[in-house]
Every structure is written in C-alpha cells, then in structure tokens.
Design goal:
CATH topology: Alpha-lytic protease prodomain-like
InterPro entries: Cation_efflux_TM (IPR058533), Cation_efflux_TMD_sf (IPR027469)
Protein name: Cation transporter
Largest sheet: none
Radius of gyration: 21 Å
Strand content: under 5%
Transmembrane segments: 12-32, 44-62, 83-108, 120-141, 161-182, 188-209
Structural class: mainly alpha
Helix content: over 70%
Distance between the termini: 36 Å
CATH class: Mainly Alpha
CATH architecture: Up-down Bundle
Membrane topology: Multi-pass membrane protein
Order of helices and strands: HHHHHHHH
Shape: elongated
Domain Cation efflux protein transmembrane: 13-219
C-alpha cells in the first residue's frame, strides 16, 4: 500500500471514530434536552459516520489494489480508482442533501406548531463543546490531508466544515434563546431552535449540490474518455 493511501486510511479511521462520538453525543443530548437543532447536528454526524466508513472501505480497496488484487492478480487502474472515489463523493453529496431536506421540513413544521422549548443551559454547554470539537477535527483532517489531498479527503474535509458551521449555528440559536428567556421574551424563544435548523439547512444545501455536480462531471468525463478510447481501438 502506498504512503498516500495509508495516510488517507488513517485519517478516515480518525474521522469515523470522531463522527461516532459526536453522533452519540448529539442524538442523546438532543433528545434529552428536547432540541431539534442538536438532534439535527447528531443526525448529520451519524450520516457522516456511515459515509466515512464507506470512504474508508473504498480507500482500503484502492490501496490494496495498487499493490495487487488477490483474486485477479491485476492492479486497480487509475481510472477505476477515480471512478470509485467519484462515486463515494456522489453518495456523500446525495446523503447530506437528504439530511438537509428532512431537517428543513421538520423545522418548518415546528415553526407552525408553536416552536420548540429547549433546555438552554445544557444546550449551551453542548454547543460550545461540539463546536470546539468539530473545528479541531476539521483543522486536523485538513492540515494532515495537505494541499494535494485526494477527492475523498477533500469531501471528508467539507463534511467536517459543514459540521462545524452547523454546530456554530446551533450554538448561536441557543444563545439567542437564552437571551430572550432572560429578557422576558420567553414566548419567542421557542422559535430560535427551528429557525436555526432552517437557516443551517438552507446554507448547507449548496455544499452537497456542489459535491454531486463535481462528481457527476468527473464520472461523465471518464465515460466519454472510455468511449473515445473504445472507438479508437475499433478504428485501428
């Protein structure tokens, strides 16, 4: 296995473990505190966990294949590796899009059903810890991936950036809710949580769309290149 694939595999292992911790923490505390924003954050981390594991599996397969495929005895071609990486990014983008749409719909419904009360004290503590943790993971993966990062690691870095911004949005929502409750506007504080989910969902809609668009373009380019080469072989 090459050094690049070994580095990629180790970063994805770290990312998967971190996603598991944040997912368990987010979903658990979100349900306990009654915060849809925290549950959304945890659900995104849970999706990120499965996506990171999928990316890890793809990297292990490609990395082993650059040595020699045990069954066929053939090496994994650069084109096949690029197809696998593009498919992983495409699936990541589609999965994150679904999370954004579902979260937006749930928050929009909550807006017209009296909002949602939140345990602001516990939520604020979670918000700070989660924001710092996600930023540290984002910085670690980005810095270790380097300037010439693979397509998979770039997508992984984008995932952590999204999680960091979601955590920041959730924390801002809790601060606003706590301020409203302290200043006598508690009846409006119940709308802070769903509003922050809506804003975060709308903001992130552009990120998975870009991921899907870029990976689709790469796959289409590979398809066209393969067809061109096939036509040249037939004419030869």
């Amino acid at each position: 296995m090459s050094c690049e694939y070994a580095k990629e595999r180790n970063l994805l292992k770290f990312s998967s473990f971190a996603c598991f911790c944040f997912a368990a923490l987010g979903v658990g505390i979100g349900l306990w505190a009654g915060s849809m924003a925290i549950v959304f954050d945890g659900a995104y981390s849970l999706v990120s966990l499965f996506l990171s594991l999928m990316a890890l599996g793809a990297t292990v397969y490609i990395g082993n294949g650059t040595g020699k495929n045990r069954k066929s005895g053939k090496r994994v071609s650069a084109q096949k590796a690029e197809v696998i990486e593009s498919l992983v990014v495409l699936i990541k983008g589609l999965a994150v899009s679904v999370v954004c749409v579902v979260s937006f719909a749930s928050a929009f419904e909550a807006m017209f059903n009296g909002g949602r009360e939140v345990n602001a004290g516990s939520a604020l503590i979670f918000g700070v810890v989660n924001l710092v943790g996600c930023f540290v993971c984002y910085f670690f993966v980005k810095s270790r991936a380097g300037k010439q990062a693979s397509t998979i690691l770039k997508a992984e870095t984008s995932q952590w950036l999204m999680d960091t911004v979601i955590s920041a949005a959730v924390l801002v929502g809790f601060i606003i809710a706590a301020s409203m409750m302290a200043s006598g506007y508690a009846e409006y504080a119940v709308y802070a949580d769903p509003i922050m989910v809506i804003l975060a969902s709308v903001y992130f809609a552009t990120v998975p769309v870009k991921m899907v668009g870029d990976s689709t373009k790469r796959l289409w380019a590979i398809y066209q290149e393969d067809n061109t080469m096939s036509g040249q072989r037939l004419l030869a």
